[in-house]
From TrEMBL:
The keyword Transmembrane applies. One of its GO terms (molecular function) is phosphate transmembrane transporter activity. This is Phosphate transport system permease protein PstA. Belongs to the binding-protein-dependent transport system permease family. CysTW subfamily. PROSITE patterns: ABC_TM1 (PS50928). The gene is pstA. It is a multi-pass membrane protein. Keywords: Cell membrane, Membrane, Transmembrane, Transmembrane helix, Transport. The keyword Acetylation does not apply. SUPFAM superfamilies: MetI-like.
Length: 295
């Protein structure tokens, strides 16, 4: 067998494997969407859920998912940005940076249920935050830090060294060069990573079962005082998210129309995650074209 023929066979095998994987994923997504889309309506997206009876929606769970996502990103993004800048621009190759990188790799490989149990022991019990949004957000911060930190570091490292040299040649300090030259240039990649990690957080369930709770108390959307117990902005209230609600409906089997509710909620979750992923690509490409055209 000559080299060209072997290359064609190997290429065909790789394309076949990739095609099978794509077909399986597409079939799974289509199955979820075909089952769930007929059950989605405005009432389904806005009404609160009902227990032990037919009907109800996912309004509170959907709000909780987005609110928990926002709180998590507010906590995790500044830490990840600082860590990424340090590792990319300031860290030297020594035992300390080796420990930091190893810790990041270990955190990124932890199962989400382990992160949830850690959050339960530390934030729910030790810090006595109880099952709450803040407990879930802090647990998801540990879940999200490795991905965001590596994304920021890689985005900064992708900037050519000539950009740094140009900033220093203009009389800027090292920090000013990073802040005014490097970070703006790396913004498209950083923003893409932030949106992709947001989709990952939005669909998380295992870590939130043990931290944010499995109930969705009624919310008073006319009361935006974060210190009020019924306020949607209260970070110390329980907050069942959409992914946790899907798990609960399927595991408890207490709703007569549980299959329909689960199918509709799953379709909404899939559409939201797809929107995060496609949105990240679109925004990243648009920012990159805008920055290259301005240059």
């Amino acid at each position: 067998m000559n080299a060209k023929r072997a290359d064609k066979i190997a290429t065909g095998i790789l394309y076949s494997i990739a095609g099978v994987i794509v077909i399986i994923l597409a079939a799974l997504l289509l199955y979820i969407l075909v089952r769930g889309l007929p059950h989605i309506s405005w009432e389904f997206l806005t009404q609160p859920s009902k227990a032990y009876q037919v009907g109800g929606g996912i309004g509170i769970q959907l709000f909780n998912s987005f609110y928990l996502l926002i709180v998590t990103m507010i906590i995790s993004f500044p830490i990840s940005l600082g860590a990424g800048i340090y590792l990319s621009e300031y860290a030297k190759q020594n035992w300390l940076t080796d420990v930091i990188r190893t810790s990041i790799e270990i955190l990124s490989s932890l199962p989400s249920v382990v992160v949830g149990l850690f959050g339960f022991l530390v934030f729910v019990l030790q810090f006595q935050y109880g099952f709450s949004i803040i407990s879930g957000a802090l647990a998801l911060t540990f879940f999200n830090l490795p991905l965001l930190t590596r994304n920021v570091e890689e985005s900064l490292r992708a900037i050519p060294a000539t950009q740094r040299e140009a900033g220093l040649a203009l009389g800027l300090s090292r920090w000013e060069t990073v802040l005014r030259v490097i970070v703006p240039e790396a913004t498209p990649g950083i923003l893409t990573g932030v949106i992709l990690s947001s989709g990952r957080i939005f669909g998380e369930a295992a870590a939130l079962i043990y931290t944010a709770g499995q109930s969705a108390p009624a919310l008073d959307f006319s009361n935006w005082n974060p210190l009020s117990a019924a306020s949607p902005l209260n970070i110390f209230r329980q907050a069942e998210t959409l992914a946790v609600y899907i798990w609960k409906v399927n595991s408890e089997g207490t709703k007569p129309d549980g299959d329909a509710i689960s199918a509709g909620a799953s379709a909404v979750l899939i559409l939201a995650v797809l929107a995060f992923n496609f949105g990240a690509r679109a925004i990243g490409k648009r920012l990159y074209k805008k920055m290259t055209s301005a240059a």
